[in-house]
Amino acid sequence: MTIISFVKTLPENLVYAPIYKKDALMKSGRKATGKNPLEESWERDFDKHDVELAIEKNPDLQAIGLYTGIRGKGIVILDIDKDHAVLKRKWAETVDTKSNPVEVTVFMDGVFGFGDGHHRVMAGKVLDIDIPIIITYNHIKNKAQPGTWEAWWEEVSKGNSPAQLNPEGYNLKSPEQVKELVEEK
To answer: pLDDT tier at 70 (50, 70, 90 boundaries)?
Structure first.
């Protein structure tokens, strides 16, 4: 999503500010810190259409802020960078995704949960890579009828989302139940 396409999704009737990218030369002659709003946005209220026009005209404007509080001394509380996807990828590349497997619990409804490792999982999604896991506790395997886990794993390993296969969150008790859920899908 580009910054312009994001701006088009913003609600009407709010006061916004286009934000200079870091080290851009502002009209005052100073270098921007990456948090400085366009000077005109201090003097008048910018709606989303004003922001869109300003960003299209000035390539040094690469983020958007939302003013709150007393208008003349507003505080920028929303800061969306134009290069958010690039920054997210750079962050993901710094995460060690291979050293330690993510410890996973399989719940009775077939959903996989983890407490530690959410940064590694998010980095894996951003980079589109597999993250090693270790199943530390499997409720289905330990409590359901024999073959239930194997039937469930077969469906999940095909790329099916557990939450989509079992949207009602039923406890999985038998291979037949798994088969019924798959047929309903």
So the answer is: low
